[in-house]
Amino acid sequence: MPKTKTERVTISLCPPVDLGGEPGWIPFDAPSLVGESLRFVSGEPDGNRFRARYYRDAEQHLHARIWFGPETEGPPGHAHGGAVAAVMDEALGLAAWAAGYPIVVGNLNVSFRNMLPLQKVVTVESRVISAEGRKVMVHGRIFSGETVYAEAECLCITIPGK
Ligand SMILES: CCCCCCCCCCCCCC(=O)SCCNC(=O)CCNC(=O)[C@H](O)C(C)(C)COP(=O)(O)OP(=O)(O)OC[C@H]1O[C@@H](n2cnc3c(N)ncnc32)[C@H](O)[C@@H]1OP(=O)(O)O
User: How big is the CA angle at 148 (ends 78 and 23), to the nearest 5 degrees?
Assistant: First the structure.
């Protein structure tokens, strides 16, 4: 009978990163609003995939500081487009929830403007643009300094009974 070999895999965690907000931003407790629905992006705050922290500004707009770790790699040294889209899906959907709309995302249109380097802290900003009937439109962008990495338009649809 073939012997089974046990392999020891060592996972080394990247060092802590500063996800602090801007002056005037208030930390936003997303799990208390939507439970564990955000685990895909926000579930491992010290891991090597994403690290995320949410805030609201004085006008109640939702912002996020996001770190794209080595496990989000797509093009060498840069974030995978799906990783960028996942962040947009979570952050813009959450922006609608935070504005009082219980929704799921019906359509997400992401424009990738620049390659996003790994292990960089970037900011997501969001705006609820309109709410008509069950349709809530949220726009957002991921940027750092003058560089915009992605922009997105997110059509959210309210869920009856929520
Ligand atoms: C459940 C609890 C969840 C808790 C979640 C915590 C969230 C955490 C934060 C969030 C983070 C994570 C976020 C996520 O990852 S959410 C996960 C990803 N999203 C999904 O899985 C959603 C899957 N889709 C659906 O469930 C249904 O299709 C929905 C509910 C969206 C609509 O099906 P429903 O049968 O209910 O409604 P309807 O078909 O009569 O449409 C109604 C109106 O909307 C218009 N329309 C619909 N779709 C589209 C489209 N694609 N483009 C353009 N328009 C569209 C439609 O024309 C109509 O308009 P009108 O004819 O009236 O003018």
Answer: 105
Cα(103) to centroid(ligand 1), Å: 7
Domains of the chain: 26-158 (3.10.129.10)
CA pair distance 95, 99, nearest whole angstrom: 6
Distance 129 CA to ligand 1 centre (A): 17
104 lines ligand 1 (CB under 6 A): yes
Task: Give distance in angstroms: CA of 158 to centre of ligand 1.
Answer: 7
| Catalytic residue list contains 89 | yes
Ligand 1 neighbourhood includes 95 CB (under 6 angstroms) = no
Per-residue pLDDT of the chain (162 residues; tens, 9 = 90+): 555 666 766 678 999 999 999 999 999 999 889 888 788 999 899 999 999 999 999 999 999 999 999 999 999 999 999 999 999 999 999 999 999 999 999 999 999 999 999 999 999 999 999 999 999 999 999 999 999 999 999 999 999 876
Query: What global pTM score does this model have?
Result: 0.93
List, in order, residues 6 or more apart from 67 with CB less than 8 Å away: 17, 19, 50, 51, 52, 119, 120, 121, 122
